[in-house]
Amino acid sequence: MEITSVITAPSLPEHLEAEKTDSKQPSTLHVIAWIDPDVDRIGVDPRSWYVETFWLAVLGPSAIWLLRRLADRFDGAPEGFKLDLDETARSLGLGGSDSRHWPLQRAVDRCLRYGMARRTDHQVLAVRRRVPPVPRRQLLRLPTSLQERHREWETDEPEPAEAVRLRRRARLVALDLRDLGVDSACIERHLLRRGVHPATAFEAAHWAWSPGGDDDRPGVAKASADQDPR
């Protein structure tokens, strides 16, 4: 005679069931800009050469790509936007929210840890639109070659009056390249090869493709003023 035994898994206590339910990740986050006048004044764009070169070793590639994606979203929605976490993770190649160790959550955690973002609520994330310089304690952990490049970057920072002149020159070069159909990323690389400061190169390249990109072209303002109003 066969005896069949049925083993029923014990259920979790009620308080553990509650913790299990509460630990479920939200499907969306409301992302807003982190307004910090001090950092916004001296910081650089998350999509810039500086961030890719010096912050990459600190934050890691996933966090850098997340910041770049959020910067793109801020361009179209500066007041903030709703971020679909599963869609964002899959579009960045980080897997879906059903993966065992969700890489997107680790990327968000690194942004929080290193001051790129902060939570203002469980489902609200304030993110910097300008990234501060790498702190000295983190610089000392970078490879020696990167530390030397960072020192060169600091010494190459132009004085305010000189910076205005160099920015205008970089913008004019960027406009000429834009007229040839060169995209902003290639313009930035071209300016960097010509020795333009990375922050100036990034600003000029993206400004050239902005709606007001012709404002600094010599003769444009004068020509507009001399037009016959009739």
Summary tags:
about 230 residues; alpha+beta; four-stranded mixed beta sheet; globular; disordered N terminus
Describe what you observe in this structure:
By secondary structure, this protein is an alpha+beta fold. The protein has two domains: 26-128, no CATH class; 158-216, no CATH class. It is 54% helix and 9% strand. It has twelve helices and four strands. It has helices at 14-22, 37-42, 49-59, 61-76, 85-91, 103-113, 136-139, 144-155, 160-179, 184-193, 198-208, 220-226; strands spanning 28-34, 81-84, 117-121, 124-128. Strands 2-1-4-3 form a four-stranded mixed β-sheet. A hairpin with a 2-residue loop joins strand 3 and strand 4. Helix 4 (61-76) packs across helix 6 (103-113), helix 9 packs across helix 11 and helix 10 (184-193) packs antiparallel against helix 11. It is globular and about 50 Å long. The N and C termini lie far apart (107 Å).
